[in-house]
Amino acid sequence: LSLQMMKHAWDNYKRYAWGLNELKPISKQGHSSNLFGNIQGATIVDALDTLYIMEMKEEFKEAKEWVEKNLDFNVNAEISVFEVNIRFVGGLLSAYYLSGEEVFRKKAVELGEKLLPAFNTPTGIPWALLNIKSGIGRNWPWASGGSSILAEFGTLHLEFVHLSHLSGNPVFAEKVMNIRKVLNRLDKPEGLYPNYLNPSSGQWGQHHVSIGGLGDSFYEYLLKAWLMSDKTDEDGKKMYYDAVQAIETHLIRKSSGGLTYIAEWKGGLLEHKMGHLTCFAGGMFALGADGAPSDKTGHHIELGAEIARTCHESYDRTRMKLGPEAFRFDGGVEAIATRQNEKYYILRPEVIETYMYMWRLTHDPKYREWGWEAVEALEKHCRVDGGYSGIRDVYNNHESHDDVQQSFFLSETLKYLYLLFSEDDLLPFEHWVFNTEAHPLPVLHKDDGNKEENQK
């Protein structure tokens, strides 16, 4: 079924928004997000590997031809370094490793080179925004004291290591290794990593800590850097398990109703709120269970299972059986969104991502059942004539659609669903690591003169 869903999402994108970034499935036209500046084709690049894995050969071929002829990075506009890295660089790298088509490698390295000026700061911590024509960078105006954001500069590592691997140019890997150095030198409040770091002074901004937005994928990439290095990157491993220890001590709590959740930390005070984005952490804990310090393996799997259950509850407690953007554990509510501006669902993948990891690592059938509930809800409430749309209020009786088919719906949500219902030998974890946009990258074995090793 996720194959039919992919076909519906792709065919409508092709019909109404081909070559543009995203589709507006209700108005049946293109949607341009300012995250990508004037770079076009986000949905195409994000969907390449999903098309390939689902064996949609015709569609993959058309997408590849579009990339060859039309994917252009010489644009005079500001882009989000993070978004362009995880969607475009990640998407191109994955497409190359899966298909072996040279055009994807060439474009990935070309885009990687265009992103390098973002690192021209006193500390080497990159800017959030970069004009890829002028090479001028800056940070989000709303970010604490001109800071860069942990999840943004901490989510470049996997892709940049592969860029060095594929180009033979060490500069990409050096840039991201330097980020690690800066972080290791700094004092961490209570062993936690604040979400804001000033790229000029090298000092933390506000002491806000989150495993949801602004923090999330930094932690994911520490673990995955170690896994992707064939477990040789001891530094990444240590940083990950130390961080999890601090997260357990300071952020993980149990509600009176027995639900384990991950709160946000604001200068020592907890906010008992968990974002949909934070739900990826269930899968992360389970994926990291195997390498956990002595005898903690079962505990990390258990933690993953608990987070999965809480996130399933956040879905189950809505009218539409789709989870809200954020849900709270205070004032007598549990796993429910209490603010209007947190009740939306934008086709996000994190809960299904966690189901997929939990299924692969435990084979408990409830994860497939929960995934199936999500499929039914998506079909019932998000599927429209022109594709799939997000929803403004998941507690409502009738759908108010937001009219955007996010590129990550094709890249992540549908891919994780497909993998949840596939055999374990499709993109096996010992050979592949998924970037935070669900783009699979091969584990780099030490003898990697022979790339064929990784081609399974």
TrEMBL record:
Residue sites binding Ca(2+) per the record: T436
Recorded GO CC terms: endoplasmic reticulum; extracellular exosome; Golgi membrane
Pathway it works in: Protein modification; protein glycosylation
Source superkingdom: Eukaryota
InterPro entries: 6hp_glycosidase-like_sf (IPR012341), Glyco_hydro_47 (IPR001382), Glycosyl_Hydrolase_47 (IPR050749), Seven-hairpin_glycosidases (IPR036026)
Single GO term (MF): mannosyl-oligosaccharide 1,2-alpha-mannosidase activity
Annotated disulfide bonds: C279-C311
One Pfam family cited in the UniProt record for this chain: Glyco_hydro_47
Keyword Cytoplasm in annotation: no
Keywords (A to Z) from UniProt: Calcium, Disulfide bond, Glycosidase, Hydrolase, Membrane, Metal-binding, Signal-anchor, Transmembrane
One GO BP: carbohydrate metabolic process
Primary localization: membrane
Active site residues per record: E83, D216, E325, E350
Catalysed reaction, written as an equation: N(4)-(alpha-D-Man-(1->2)-alpha-D-Man-(1->2)-alpha-D-Man-(1->3)-[alpha-D-Man-(1->3)-[alpha-D-Man-(1->2)-alpha-D-Man-(1->6)]-alpha-D-Man-(1->6)]-beta-D-Man-(1->4)-beta-D-GlcNAc-(1->4)-beta-D-GlcNAc)-L-asparaginyl-[protein] (N-glucan mannose isomer 8A1,2,3B1,3) + 3 H2O = N(4)-(alpha-D-Man-(1->3)-[alpha-D-Man-(1->3)-[alpha-D-Man-(1->6)]-alpha-D-Man-(1->6)]-beta-D-Man-(1->4)-beta-D-GlcNAc-(1->4)-beta-D-GlcNAc)-L-asparaginyl-[protein] (N-glucan mannose isomer 5A1,2) + 3 beta-D-mannose; N(4)-(alpha-D-Man-(1->2)-alpha-D-Man-(1->2)-alpha-D-Man-(1->3)-[alpha-D-Man-(1->2)-alpha-D-Man-(1->3)-[alpha-D-Man-(1->2)-alpha-D-Man-(1->6)]-alpha-D-Man-(1->6)]-beta-D-Man-(1->4)-beta-D-GlcNAc-(1->4)-beta-D-GlcNAc)-L-asparaginyl-[protein] (N-glucan mannose isomer 9A1,2,3B1,2,3) + 4 H2O = N(4)-(alpha-D-Man-(1->3)-[alpha-D-Man-(1->3)-[alpha-D-Man-(1->6)]-alpha-D-Man-(1->6)]-beta-D-Man-(1->4)-beta-D-GlcNAc-(1->4)-beta-D-GlcNAc)-L-asparaginyl-[protein] (N-glucan mannose isomer 5A1,2) + 4 beta-D-mannose
Localization per record: Endomembrane system
Cofactor: Ca(2+)
Bilayer topology: Single-pass type II membrane protein
EC number: 3.2.1.-
UniProt KW Phosphoprotein keyword: no
Family: Belongs to the glycosyl hydrolase 47 family.
Described function: Involved in the maturation of Asn-linked oligosaccharides. Progressively trim alpha-1,2-linked mannose residues from Man(9)GlcNAc(2) to produce Man(5)GlcNAc(2).
Stated name of the protein: alpha-1,2-Mannosidase
Organism expressing this protein natively: Sitta europaea (Eurasian nuthatch)
Lineage: Eukaryota, Metazoa, Chordata, Craniata, Vertebrata
Chain's gene name: Man1a1
